[in-house]
Amino acid sequence: MEEAEKRGVEWLRRGGRMLKGYCPTCNSPLFEVDGEVKCPGCGRVFMTVGERLSALRVVEKRLMYEVEETLLRLVREVSGAISKAKNLEEALRYSQALYILLASLDLAKRMAEEGGSARAPSQG
Question: Residue 82: pLDDT above 60?
């Protein structure tokens, strides 16, 4: 067994976990161990778990912003369609879609404010 494999196995035994990413230097799988993201091949430390969580929060906020923008665009489209509806039945269908979009927008905003931990209201 190679030294990198031995190190990776040891990290797993100590409670570490293998991540999806690979080291850009030696192409070994990265591990989260002892509060850091490490490479068993070259020994490089990439970031602490705290830094990794901060980076994930930035990505999450950007994603939630994109979701909100998409929902707002759809709300504008459906709102315009309601005013152009040919009959009550069509207007009601668009109104139902609008209701769902507004509820989704509300949830997305709460998730962004609470760091992704908001839950959808129960349906019962």
Answer: yes
